[in-house]
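Posting this for the archive.
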Amino acid sequence: MSPNEMAYRAAIAKAQAQKAQLVDSAQAAKARISPARLKQDAKDKVAATALDGVAYVGAKVQQRPIAVTAAAGALGLFMARRPIAALLRRLYVRIQDRHEQSGD
């Protein structure tokens, strides 16, 4: 076998190895960008972010429980402002009616 033939066969073997590596890389990239994989990655990222947020809030609640309770109470009162206002109006009307009946 001549040196040129040996170099040629070595080049062919190297080219085939690089081609196989390219095909493997392409298949790996195709698997990484498949819709199912992207969907799962997005779900995992959202779940991890939510868990981090819950842990952060839990730590803050442990640091300042009174402030968090006050804020939650204020938010609850704000959310229920219309029913509370309606209840107070009904109570006011009842009290006024009672005073008018006793005044007659």
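The longest helix spans residues 3-32. The radius of gyration is 37 Å.
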